[in-house]
Write a structure and sequence with these properties.
The chain is α/β, with parallel strands linked by helices and 254 residues long. The protein contains eight helices and five strands. Helix 3 packs across helix 4 and helix 6 packs across helix 8.
Length: 254
């Protein structure tokens, strides 16, 4: 996705970055994964979505934010039975985030936002944010984008939600339809063990490590039928709007 009028570090010269650093108050770090999302979605979808959302958020708050290079791999152990998935160890993922933050901190940045599109990164983001606060005195906010739009996602029937289905599928179609092979999408071939019933319902659950292939043979969850770009746009627009509100408040004392 091409977004003009933003501070996008990979596309800048060092002189341009130097000028941007004089006015920007926040560094946005997009984090995703390179993993399977069923038979019809490209492996890079999480990382690409994080990068594209970060660009749109940066435009919303320009000139308050710069966007760093995206972290295109994440913690994806649970998908490793599906070819193409590449995982980082949690310690490696956290080290990458720490090094990016440390690099930006060297040039004066004290506020950071991780825009995460992969649930497997959630715990690592939380831990590294606290560790960086302790080590460097910086503030690292982080959000899994779906947490910003629970009200919108609630409109999607439960049986249609999941990995490889909505809401992520709709977001992919809106941001870059080339991420999706519509003719290859499949309904999730799911077989949930009774011990995981709690993980399938919102009312209660017990967490424990599991592999995706133990639950779905084709890597997908939910039902992709009926998805739409319009739903994706509604989700992305809300993410951008709500992060815009957060960022302006987050950096007002910088």
């Amino acid at each position: 996705m091409q977004v003009d009028g933003i501070y996008l570090l990979p596309e800048m010269t060092w002189k341009e970055a130097e000028e941007a650093y004089k006015v920007a108050k926040l560094a946005i770090i997009p984090v995703g994964s390179n993993e399977q999302h069923g038979p019809g979605i490209k492996l890079k979808v999480d990382g690409q979505q994080a990068y594209d959302m970060a660009k749109l958020v940066a435009k919303e708050v320009h000139p308050l934010a710069v966007v760093t290079p995206p972290v295109m791999m994440g913690v994806s152990y649970h998908h490793m039975r599906f070819p193409g998935t590449v995982t980082l160890r949690q310690s490696t993922f956290m080290a990458v985030i720490e090094d990016i933050v440390t690099s930006m901190h060297r040039f004066g940045f004290k506020k950071f936002l991780l825009i995460d599109t992969h649930g497997g990164n959630r715990h690592a983001c939380n831990v590294v944010a606290m560790e960086l606060k302790e080590k460097l005195g910086v503030e690292v906010a982080h959000t899994l984008y779906i947490d910003l739009v629970r009200d919108v996602a609630a409109k999607i029937p439960v049986e249609k939600r999941g990995h490889g289905s909505d809401p992520g599928l709709a977001v992919a179609l809106y941001l870059d339809e080339d991420l999706v092979h519509m003719d290859r999408l499949e309904k999730g071939d799911e077989h949930w063990p009774y011990t995981m019933i709690g993980s399938r319902h919102d009312m209660w659950k017990v967490d424990y490590p599991w592999y995706t292939h133990e639950i779905t043979d084709n890597g997908a969850f939910g039902n992709p039928e009926g998805t739409s770009k319009e739903l994706g746009k509604e989700i992305v627009d809300k993410v951008v709007e709500r992060l815009g509100v957060f960022i302006r408040d987050f950096v007002k004392n910088v």
